[in-house]
Structure formats: structure tokens, C-alpha cells
Write a structure and sequence with these properties.
By secondary structure, the chain is α/β, with parallel strands linked by helices. Helix content is about 20%, strand content about 20%. It has a seven-stranded mixed β-sheet with strand order 5-4-3-8-11-12-13. It has a two-stranded antiparallel sheet with strand order 1-2.
């Protein structure tokens, strides 16, 4: 069962940049990240949940009103990226925890039919992904994670057997650097992608380096899900020929189908 305490225990710690830390039940991940305090896990299971499990703790105690963003005069992606990052960064840690909790609930149901999942490993302030990764591993599913290659500006793949195998990598993104097990992209059934912004046509705004676009240019048939807070939606994202669209976006409000040709299983 995913508990509210799993997200209550998400917090930020500074190592040059802010990085998410997560306390997992029965998982020795806190031993692997040198900046994690040695805190004992507080629960035993993460993976049995339903919408009925939404705790009363998540009834909002205050209303979050996202910053108003006027896109009409924006000339390029860089401008939109900067403004959407500001909107996302304005979320408090508590708001990010709550929204990530609901995204995980929606995502867990969505991923039930899939056995092999490619998943990004989040860093602050992205939508948290370690909880869903841990759930997939506990269910006996295969998880593949990216390792950033700065020389070619693309991704190489590794199987992940335990979240304890993650350590700070490029841009402080957790990666299985010393326990890397090369993975075959052809085995991926569905992929989870981070993003800065999105629109309902499936256009994705990333950080601008094109790592995911290059990867999915090579493997265009892999279905793609973007994970985002609802406040990261824009009316329209400018698209270049090399940009790769998402098939769905999952926010705290539910799943948005961007590509009708790929129905939810």
C-alpha cells in the first residue's frame, strides 16, 4: 500500500543542487545516497492501493492558485520553458508531495498491463518517480532506467534491480552507475518521461538538450507517458521536426490522452 507517510517523508536536501530524497519501506536506499540521513523506514508495503486509499490528510488545507501565464506574446520555446519552470518551482514541497502522490495512484493503475517499463528517475522539483519504480519492482516487473551520456547527448539504458543501486550521476540525476546492467530498448513496452511543459496535443517541452528526443527518434514505436503537475500545461508548445510527442500525460487530475491512436489498455 502506498501510504501518505511515503510522501510525507519526501524532502529536499542540498548537494550543489536540490535533490529529492525518499524513505522507502523495507528498502535500504538510504544507505546508498551519502546525503541521506539514517532514518528507519516507517511502513512495510508500498504497492497495494486504490482510490479508496486516498488519506484524509490529502484534503487540501489551502487552495493553490497557479501563477497566471500569458503565452500569447511568447516568441520561442526558451521563453515558455523559463515561465513554466517558474510556475513549477513556485509549488511548495508539500504541494509537490501531494500532487506526486495522486499522480502515482493514477499511474499505477495505468501501468498494470505492462511488464517492462522504462522510467526516468526524478530529481527535485520533477514529479517523483521512485515510488512507482519501487512498486513495479515489488510486483516483479522489469524496470529500465536511463543513464545520461553527455558526449553524445543521448541515453544509454540499464536494468534496475533495486532502488538501492542508484547513486548521484550526471546533473545529480540518480543512476545505477556502479551496478549498470545494459538493457535492450526493444524490450521496453512503455516509457515514463520527465518534462517542463506540455500541451494536449502531446507536445513536450524538456530542458532543451534533446536527450529524450534523440532516444525516441531511434525508437519511435515505444509508447510514451509524460509525468507533470497540472500547472505545467500550456495552451500550445511550439514543435520542431525533431521533437517527439507524448501519447499520454498523467497529472494529479488524471490521464490526458494526446494520441487517440494509442488507447489506454
Amino acid at each position: 500500500m502506498i501510504r501518505d507517510t511515503d510522501f510525507l517523508n519526501l524532502s529536499v536536501f542540498s548537494v550543489s543542487e536540490a535533490v529529492f530524497r525518499v524513505f522507502f519501506s523495507g528498502i535500504p536506499s538510504v544507505q546508498c545516497f551519502p546525503w541521506f540521513p539514517q532514518t528507519k523506514p516507517k511502513s512495510k508495503s508500498l504497492c497495494t492501493l486504490s482510490n479508496r486509499d486516498l488519506p484524509p490528510f490529502f484534503i487540501p488545507t489551502r487552495i493553490f492558485i497557479p501563477l497566471h501565464v500569458n503565452y500569447s506574446s511568447m516568441p520561442d520555446k526558451a521563453e515558455i520553458r523559463n515561465r513554466l519552470k517558474s510556475v513549477r518551482d513556485a509549488l511548495t514541497l508539500e504541494e509537490r508531495r501531494e500532487k506526486s502522490y495522486h499522480i502515482t495512484i493514477h499511474l499505477k493503475k495505468f501501468l498494470q498491463p505492462y511488464q517492462t517499463v522504462f522510467a526516468y528517475v526524478a530529481k527535485d522539483p520533477e514529479v517523483e518517480s521512485l515510488v512507482i519504480i519501487n512498486c513495479l519492482l515489488e510486483e516483479g516487473k522489469t524496470v529500465i532506467v536511463p543513464i545520461i551520456q553527455t558526449d553524445t547527448k543521448t541515453l544509454r539504458l540499464s536494468y534496475l534491480k533495486n532502488i538501492a543501486d542508484l547513486e548521484p550521476g550526471t546533473f545529480h540525476v540518480p543512476e545505477p552507475l556502479t551496478t549498470e546492467i545494459p538493457a535492450d530498448a526493444k524490450e521496453i513496452e512503455i516509457a515514463l518521461m520527465p518534462l517542463v511543459g506540455f500541451d494536449r496535443s502531446g507536445n513536450r517541452l524538456g530542458y532543451g538538450a534533446g536527450y529524450y528526443d534523440r532516444f525516441f527518434e531511434t525508437y519511435p514505436d515505444i509508447p510514451r507517458i509524460g509525468l507533470a503537475y497540472a500547472c505545467q500545461e500550456a495552451p500550445a508548445i511550439p514543435a520542431d521536426p525533431f521533437d517527439r510527442k507524448m501519447d499520454w500525460v498523467v497529472t494529479e487530475n488524471g490521464c490526458i490522452t494526446c494520441n487517440p491512436a494509442r488507447p489506454i489498455l
